[in-house]
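Hi X.,

You mentioned you wanted examples for the new student's onboarding notes, showing what a folding record looks like when two proteins sit in one file. Here is a clean example. The first protein comes first, with its sequence line followed by its structure tokens.
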Amino acid sequence: MRTMAMPKDANWLGDIFGGWLMSHADIAGAIHAYRRSGGKVVTVAVDDFTFIQPVYIGDVVTFFCEVDRVGRTSMVVAVDIRAERPGSPAGTSIHVASARITYVHVDDERRPREIPAEPA
């Protein structure tokens, strides 16, 4: 997932709010978990979230996701977050944050549901 940090997402110093970054990481992770499980998922835990570098207005932020662990009804998705700064050479980015988020696969009544052995 990729998005651009905008002025409305920043404090008065021009730094992007951590909650903005966490929200987008959760969305990206949920998309990845949804695809892996083949259905609805809910966030049950943010196991780790580390801010490494600030994100600024105008940065293009990319969220790279990978399933770290799959259990019977839950999975952990690792999210690597990188930012491309305006004026930087094309294709260069810096590591700004990382997260590990746990999702549970649920049915239509939001009860835990088994995750298929193979990706959907």
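Then the second protein repeats the pattern, sequence line and then tokens:
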Amino acid sequence: MKKLIIVFSILLMSLSLPACSLGRQKTAQDWAYRFVVWNGDTYKATDEAVLDVGKQIGKVEHYSDHESTRATGVFSNEYHEGTALYEIKNVSTDKAIAVESSEGEYVKLEHIGKYGSKDK
């Protein structure tokens, strides 16, 4: 009888583990990539440094690390509110923009399409 209780307890615990993870909230690590949405377009973060930025074109207004978030305006799953966005000199904003990743350092964000589009 004691062995039956132990086996049943082990079985019950193993079945309850997957159920515990169902309520887990998604985080930034769950996103397919790091991005900024600006003017309704998605710009994927790269590791490419930008040395020649133009004028400031905006700031991140909303930050979220929850994949289900459907914020409007300028938002990101990587950069926090207030992070500045810039033109890249001699590059159309239809191709890329820059984000200030740290004081005086800029990273390229490549345009990949309209936000919410399945064609990324």
